[in-house]
Amino acid sequence: MYHQLWHNLCQPNQVRLERMRQKHKLADTAQQIVGGFLLSGPFVVTQEVWALALNMTVFHNVFLVCIVAAIGYGGLYGADNDRNPRREAAVAGVPVRFISVLLVVFGSVGTLAIAVTAPDQFLGELPLADQMIVTFRAISVGAVFSVVGAVTTDSLF
Questions:
Q1: Taking the domains of the chain in order of start, what are their residue ranges?
Q2: Could you give the CA distance from residue 116 to residue 135 in angstroms, rounded to a whole number?
Q3: Of 50, 59, 81, 130, which one has the greatest count of Cβ atoms within 10 A?
Q4: Please, what sign has the CA dihedral across residues 91, 94, 97, 98?
Q5: What is the pLDDT of residues 102-135, one digit of tens each?
Q6: pTM
């Protein structure tokens, strides 16, 4: 036990810092939000996105959510060799940074859609329950693009 303690104390600071879990900071989330909003805007107000969402099934929506998650994880950890998901703070084994990206991506697209009243504009004739379902599908389409902005700004800054 004392040998391990002495070994840890004598290691250079850089090695000790690499072993510590990296915390996800509020500034990281702010960067993700900027990137997420930046690339999601054009897709929220495009009629074609809402037409696609009308024709999507549950399978299509689940598939899109998986694509968003894959792009997010790959962008955060596959494209950045300095970032290791095992060294980051995690909740139930899932890195907090990855959870943050997913929340930011779907949240930014959803917030923009509601803020510009896109569901009312493009789905006004549908019952409210159907509007909500189609809106989530449209959010999933926009999230494919939003995730690129979120992980890019997170990785660059």
A1: 24-156
A2: 13
A3: 50
A4: negative
A5: 999 999 999 999 999 999 999 999 999 999 999 9
A6: 0.80
